[in-house]
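Quick review question:
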């Protein structure tokens, strides 16, 4: 295994810092309402929750494979909160392992996003890892609103919430 770069260690630190709050949000998802949408243009709750839980997997795929093709990307299926959280824990472990091997010589290697082989987007692995962490945080924020709208406790994320003062 390669020695992680300083940037990879920083990505890992940031991902770990976000993982606890993300897991707490996922633990509150009302999985009995997978089709819930606060607006007709919004994502369904089940899809959003799985998206948040799955994003660390992207980091693993970005680093280890260098490409995601929507046509062949393996989507997970979960039915319960326990399955959702277990999936998140599993893909977090894969992301950790990949980041620990993310050496400096890999940073500028290409990452391609495709659909049925057609290139949609290309950037560096370093940039894609950074964007993935930001993407997870963004959608976790969205998920916290869905929790509030479904009368589920919103956990402390960056400080106390109205439901969780344990910060």
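Suggested answer, residue by residue:
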């Amino acid at each position: 295994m390669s020695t992680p770069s300083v940037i990879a260690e920083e990505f890992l630190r940031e991902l770990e810092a976000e993982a606890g709050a993300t897991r707490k949000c996922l633990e509150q998802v009302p999985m009995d309402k997978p089709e819930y949408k606060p607006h007709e243009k919004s994502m369904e709750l089940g899809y959003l929750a799985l998206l948040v839980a799955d994003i660390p997997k992207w980091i693993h795929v970005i680093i280890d494979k260098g490409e995601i093709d929507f046509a062949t990307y393996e989507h997970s299926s979960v039915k319960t909160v326990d399955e959702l959280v277990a999936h998140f824990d599993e893909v977090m472990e894969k992301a950790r392992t990949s980041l620990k091997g993310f050496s400096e010589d890999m940073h500028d290697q290409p990452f391609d996003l495709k659909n049925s082989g057609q290139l949609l987007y290309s950037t560096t692995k370093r940039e894609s890892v950074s964007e993935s962490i930001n993407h997870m945080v963004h959608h976790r924020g969205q998920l916290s609103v869905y929790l509030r709208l479904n009368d589920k406790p919103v956990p402390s994320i960056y400080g106390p919430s109205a439901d969780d003062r344990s910060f």
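Why it works: The CA atoms of residues 33 and 45 lie 7 Å apart. The chain has a mean pLDDT of 96.
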